[in-house]
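Database export, one record per block. Field names are fixed; values are copied verbatim from the stored entry.
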Amino acid sequence: MSESQNLALTFGVDDSALTLIKSLLPGVNFKHHALDIQSVLDLDVKTEPNLVLFGSAKSKVSIVEMVLSMRTQYATVPIYYATSDRGNFNQKELIKNGFTDAFLLPFDQELVRNLVPAGVGDYKSVFLLDIQPDTRLDFDTYLMLPINRKFIRFSSAGFPLEAARSKRLLDHQVSSLQIATADVKKFHDFTVSQLKNISEGEGVSATARRERMHGAIRSLLTGFVTNTIEMTDCTQIVQSYIMESGAPTSSIYEKLLRLGSGGGDSYTHASNVATIAALLAMSIEPASVDAIALAGLLHDVGLADISIEIQSKPESERTPEEHSLYERHAHQSMALVKSRPTPIPETALQFIDQHHERFDGTGYPNKLKGSDILVGSQLLAIADEFDYLTNVAFGKARRSPKQAMDMILSSPGYDPKILTSVSTLV
C-alpha cells in the first residue's frame, strides 16, 4: 500500500482523542495541522490522503467553512470529526454540515478502528441464519479464529454452503460468519433474493435488522450523553427494537444464539445487554421488563466521563487510583440518566447503579451483597457478563453461549435462586 493510501490529515483533534486514534490505526501515517483556514488552503492536493480528521479545538473560522474548503481540495476523501469532549458534540448536525461521520470517543473507537481496512477491518460479520444452506453463493465466507488472529475461508464463491457444514457450526454454537467488506452488496442482494423466495416477515434479514438497530442505538446513546436527545427517544428504541427481539417466537436460548457477535463496540454491547436482560426478565421479573431493558440500554453511559487513557488500559495495568475512578462509572451512569429532564423509573436507576455489584460482596461501587442487590440489577449483570464473555475479538478465546452460561451459573457473584431460575430458561 502506498504512502497516500496510509495517510491521514488531522486538524485540531484533542490530545486524548488523537492518542487513542493512533493506537487504533497503527498502520496510518498521521500529519497534523493547526485548525485554521490557511492550513486547509496550503495543503498539497497532489498527495491525496486516505482520510481527514477534524477535532474540537477552537478556531476563528467556522469548522463548517473549513470542511467546505476541504471538499474543494479532496472531493472524494472521507472527512470525519473526532473528539473526546462531549460538551458540544452533535453527530447529526456535524454530518448535515458536510462531515462523512462524527465520532465521540471512546464510545466510537471500534468504528474508528475500521476506517482504514487492516486485518479485522477487511471483514464484516453476518448471521449464519441469513445464508440458506445448499444455495449457491456469489461471495466467499470466512471463519474468524480470534486466538490466531486469522480468517480462514469457509466456503467459496460460486459454490453453496453445504447444509452439513452449516449445521456443524450451529452445533458448536457459532452463529456468525465473516464476508469481505467488498462483498457486502453481494451479500445484501443475496439475502433480499432469499427473503423474496420465502416471503419472510417484513423482508429484512437478521443482519440488516442488526445494522438498523446499531444505527438507531448509536444515534440515541451519543445524543443522550451530549444532551441532544430525550428520554422518550430511549423508550421508543426499547419498544421498537429491544422488546421486539424478546417477542416469544422461540426459546430464550435460541435467541441468545441468534444474537451472534456483531463486534465489540459500545452500541452492539448496549443492545445485546438490553435484549438479554429483557429476555431473562420476562420469566424471572416480568413486572420490571421495560425498566430492565431501558437500564440495559443506558447502563454504561457514565463511561463518557471516564478518561480515554484509563479506559484504554488493560485492567491489570491500571493503578489503584485508576481502578477507583473506573469503578465509579456505574454510579456516574445512573447520575447522568437521572439528570435528564424526562423522568425515568426509579427502579431503572437502581438497576444501572447496581449492575456491577455482586452477591458475594466483591462488586462495586458500593460493595453491596446478598438481598441488598435488586433482582433486576442481577439480571442486568448476568446479561452484561454474558455479552462480554461471548464477544469475539482478536486475541481473546472464543466462548460459546453454553460455555459462557456455564461460567455464570457457577459464579458466586449471583443469587443462587436467580441462577436456578436462569438455568431452567437456558
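Remark 1: The two ends are 48 Å apart (CA to CA).
Remark 2: The beta strands are 7-11, 29-33, 51-54, 79-83, 101-104, 123-127, 141-145, 150-155, 176-180.
End of record.
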